[in-house]
Amino acid sequence: MSCEPWLCAEIASTKKANPIQKPEIAVAMIKRAQRPLLIVGSQIVDRWMEGKQAIEYIIELANASKIQVVATAHMVREFINRGYTPAAYMNAMEISQRVGDPAWMGLDGKGRPDLVIYVGMPYYMEALILSGLKHFAPDLKTMTIDNMYHVHASWSFPNASLEEWASNLKVMTSKFNEGGN
Amino acid sequence: MTKNVHVKIDEMKTNVGLIKNLELSIGKVVNDNYTEPMGPTPMPSVTALRDWDMKLLAKYKAFYMPDCDSCCLCTFGKCDLTAGKRGACGLDIRAQSSRIVMIACAIGSACHSAHSRHLVHHLIEKYGRKFPLDIGGLNIKVEAPVTRLVTGIKPETLGDLDDVLAYVEEQITQVLAVAHTGQEASALDFESKAMHVGMCDHVGMEVGDIAQISALGYPKADPEAPLVKLGIGSVERSKPVIMCIGHNVVPSVGIIDYAKETKVDDNLEVVGLCCTSHDMTRYYHRARIVGPISWELRFIRAGLADVVVLDEQCVRTDVAEEAAKVNAPVIAASEKNCVGFKNRTNDDTNAIVDDLVSGKVKGVLILDPEKVGEVAVRVAQAVAPVRKRKTILPTPEEIVTIAKTCTQCKLCQRNCPQDFAIPPAMKAAATGDISLLTDLYEVCIGCGKCEGACPQKIMIHSLIVKAGEKAMYAEDNLCRVGRGAIQDTEIRNVGSPIVLGEIPGIVALVGCSNYPKGGKDVYEIAREFASRRYIVVLSGCSAMSAGSYRNAEGQTIWEEFPGGFEAGGVCNVGSCVANSHIAGAAIKVANIFAKRNLRGNYEEIADYIHNRLGAVGLAWGAYSQKAAAIGAGFWRLGVPVIIGPHGSKYRRVLLGRKEDPQNWEVLDARTGETVNVGPTPEHLFNIAETKEECIVAIAKLCMRPNDTWKGRSIKLSHYVDLSKRYLGVMPDDLHLFVRTMADVPSTMKDEFTKILAEKNWKETIIPDPTLLPRMVRKMKE
Hints:
- The complex is a heterodimer of chains A (181) and B (781).
- Chain A has 181 residues and is an alpha/beta fold.
- Chain A has one domain (20-175): TPP-binding domain (Rossmann fold, 3-Layer(aba) Sandwich).
- Chain A has six helices and nine strands; from the N terminus they run E-H-E-E-E-H-E-H-E-H-E-H-E-E-H.
- Chain A has helices at 23-32, 54-65, 75-81, 92-99, 123-136, 162-178; strands at 18-19, 36-40, 48-49, 52-53, 68-71, 88-89, 115-119, 141-144, 155-156.
- In chain A, helix 2 (54-65) runs parallel beside helix 6 (162-178).
- The radius of gyration of chain A is 15 Å and the shape is globular.
- Chain B has 28 helices and 23 strands.
- In chain B, helix 2 (93-127) runs antiparallel to helix 4 (160-178), helix 5 (187-216) crosses helix 25 (625-636) and helix 23 (580-593) packs across helix 24.
């Protein structure tokens, strides 16, 4: 698995994401966060693994982890059609601007997220959002659980095949289902 | 107004003696019969409208997304600006990000204005400074609304446009100077200057378009401008084909004129790519629009062009190499795009033709449009029978053979700006199944980056084009010729229903073809809103993409809907520079319907448009700096703009925060009271990730503080209906848009009542909204 930016031209970064070498590490970091938030983009229905759309894996993960989910673009419809209601639906820029704002009190008014996890956006767009948060919200931790290395995140999985991605998401789900810290 | 009167006397006998070689220059003779009172900001300097910009920027906060952690614009650096670090000059990443936005807007504005400068020079040379401007006959009295608003000048002749352009050019220079190291320090000030140069961009565009409409006999604000052929399949391949690429119509006019004069026009195809094609068809209805910028490679590689003529802007810089592969000579015809060719402008025409036909040279630079015309036509006629449509596209059998050499390294996908799944398509093609490659044809933006990345040197784009060949030759559609401006009478007819909200909005789809999933999105968005009786306006590549699909009855969008600026109308204003007519229409609503003074009165008119006119711009495939400049011009007018996901690479959005009440306060001009009007419009510049999201966002962004209850009710019903259809949910922010229960659509009373109760909604008033204290008629004591 490579820690080069998935799109080859996305190299203009001096501060690079720490690679997540094992899904268990991602689970540990999410569990450690007080207020994690998962933001799910439009390509989550375009990517297929083992005959299933990626959104199915994300719903399983969300159910297991109980993380609040924000659906961007028109993904709220896709979630609801599959029996899962996200905590909110919002434009990708709107939610990203909010999570970067220290004064924002979160979706439920109880506090700003301390870890924001991105998955399933167009790569170039997600990369730029993560760059914005890296620069203007340096206190906020960001993570991507795509199968593409995102250089601007705090933590990112390396580039991986769809099979490896499916495996990572399944391991994460199983670890949350197991419970414990 | 006349500038630069120049008298030259070679020899004159007078009472006092003999005068020889006298030259006398007078800077300017003012011949001002524009009686409208001058407003406060004619020809505004870079800071004259800063207060207005700051009002907008306080309401709509920038969210920056730097594409690069460092700055490398001077030799102090490189400087790492990550997360709070400052560069050697002291600049931080926020200011650097806004500086990049400003630079992009300045480039775009310079590009349009330089184009217009060339047009004005050329047309003055050909028709004289006193050639009258006429862009709509008796139907248009306000012939240059943007120019009047910004500069205070009412241009009447081609010569008058000189003064206007001089202002624009000075402002672009001032703004560009701001980008220098050690100048501006504040992100907000960079943003203000980006808006300034965007405003100037609209003036520059307007100058260019009214000059060419007047002098070249284009349709003059004609809602029933003719329909012309659109698409690669519409090109008659049995005839010699001259392909013109770019934005500046002047060389194309030379070609068309020569073809007509020599009576070969019936036996020749003159086709265009990108905005040049719009302007060619405005001049000559038998010209063909091939398609947007992304069609360049496919058209050349398919061997369809016998001669390629390049003017300026959005021309692939490798066209010469590509054309050489299919033995198509190239003529560069713009000072801005010389392609490294030898300048043959002053050479004998026969010699140039011989050199190109024989293949002695692959291309030439000719800066005389009439000579371009003769050379292009004669060369096309001579080389077509010899070239015999030479193509570099593979045969179907070769696709399989070539695909077998793919190693599945994925570098093609990792270099594709769309991140398209090319490797699986190659894998399938290697087994003889080209269906995945065919699917890519529809959505590919034609950049060819996949080929440059391939270690096996596979011509992947050519494989995609060949796989999509059947679809390519089926592209035989229609586009309405660019009509130019909107008539004053049209504005009068729709002014009231637009401002009161009864026509739910004006949706302007403009700009380039960097679409995330093909051009069909543009067609579907335009059709959705036209069907709902919004006013839909298109230009440039978006107008082409919208015309490239048909409804169930086989009609293109241009046949299905009328071409007027009216509810349910779909207008094509024309090329890039014709985008100025969209801003012009908004300005004319304020002037003609609301009787607001135009002349040098920018702030008041922008305040009017921002608070009352439900207009939204959409640049779904925006890629260029010109698109950034166009957007910036709309931001300053207070018109919200949405861009597609690739627009994130502009690296900045301007967002309102709908849950913050203080964000949405306006003054009631009747009383001076501060009134919360809700998030109308919610954003000034935002990105939509998908077509579905975009459609709902447009409906929401059409709401304005001034909407009457009836208008708001109509707008809300569309917002709810579209949200249910495309997002599958009832909007969760309806309470922010309801001022009184009368706003609630009558068919949705029960649903709304429940939501409003849950949200502790309180009734408020509908003010006479303004952001400008000076517009308040009676201040609150």
